[in-house]
Structure to design on (283 residues):
């Protein structure tokens, strides 16, 4: 979906892993349905996914990297139990709920909320990436034929920060720089966490300026301009405009606002109009 969707899922997983009664039975983007996952579990477990992303255009020349401004993060909780059948075989599944299981589910929901609200590392990054919380829904999960089962869904309606600009290498004190550094600080001896350490390099490479993309192309992308529009504004340099990553911008572009007033747009001004991490990213 986007880098910020990836970051929110990763922060949710890393905050919740080992922080609730589910222990290490926390899964990111597990695709199997609850009844399939529970066959391998004999305790509470949590799955994390982003089921929907959407956004509204921001002006006529909208940057696609800033288009997503709403995510639905779904945290699903269930309790797997082991039972002995009449024939002596073992049955594992999500049972019809009872008072004790409902208590367990309520406490698990509380533990998820508490962890995401107070965890000083991954919970803090989660709060910074999700920026604004539009709403929360708590739904019954795994219900069929009117039977209630020991499963719940927590649906977070989030307004996240925008994806980072192309060409902005994450600084150490920025949101993305802090996130990348935290990933690299994970325990390499843990096979599951080692995968997230490797994710840091992938994210940094995607954000950094791709080979062969000139600075004028980065500015055009921030403003959501097609090549022809960028050329008409004087952003594309003389020649065919196919410059390497070191290509310089045309010094300034003057835009007529009528009545003799002009606005000068240069690289610094574009950063103000469409900032890289944006003020919200520092929260």
């Amino acid at each position: 979906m986007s880098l910020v969707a990836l970051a929110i899922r990763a922060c949710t997983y890393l905050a919740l892993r080992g922080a609730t009664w589910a222990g290490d039975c926390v899964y990111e983007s597990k695709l199997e349905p609850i009844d399939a996952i529970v066959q391998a579990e004999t305790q509470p477990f949590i799955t994390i996914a982003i089921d929907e992303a959407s956004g509204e255009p921001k002006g006529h020349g909208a940057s696609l990297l800033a288009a997503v401004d709403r995510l639905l993060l779904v945290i699903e909780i269930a309790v797997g139990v082991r039972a002995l059948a009449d024939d002596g075989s073992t049955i594992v599944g999500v049972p019809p709920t009872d008072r004790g299981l409902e208590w367990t589910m309520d406490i698990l929901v509380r533990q998820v909320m508490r962890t995401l609200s107070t965890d000083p590392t991954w919970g803090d990054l989660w709060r910074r990436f999700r920026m604004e919380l539009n709403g929360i829904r708590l739904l019954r999960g795994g219900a069929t034929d009117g039977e209630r089962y020991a499963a719940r869904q927590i649906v977070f309606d989030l307004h996240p920060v925008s994806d980072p600009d192309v060409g902005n290498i994450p600084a150490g004190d920025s949101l993305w720089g802090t996130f990348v550094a935290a990933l690299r600080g994970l325990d390499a001896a843990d096979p599951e966490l080692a995968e997230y350490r490797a994710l840091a390099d992938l994210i940094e490479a995607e954000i950094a300026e791709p080979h062969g993309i000139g600075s004028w192309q980065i500015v055009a992308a921030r403003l959501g301009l097609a090549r022809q529009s960028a050329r008409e504004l004087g952003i594309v340099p003389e020649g065919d405009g196919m410059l390497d990553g070191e290509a310089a911008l045309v010094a300034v572009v003057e835009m007529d606002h009528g009545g003799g007033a002009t606005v000068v747009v240069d690289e610094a001004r574009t950063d103000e109009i469409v900032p890289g991490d944006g003020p919200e990213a520092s929260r």
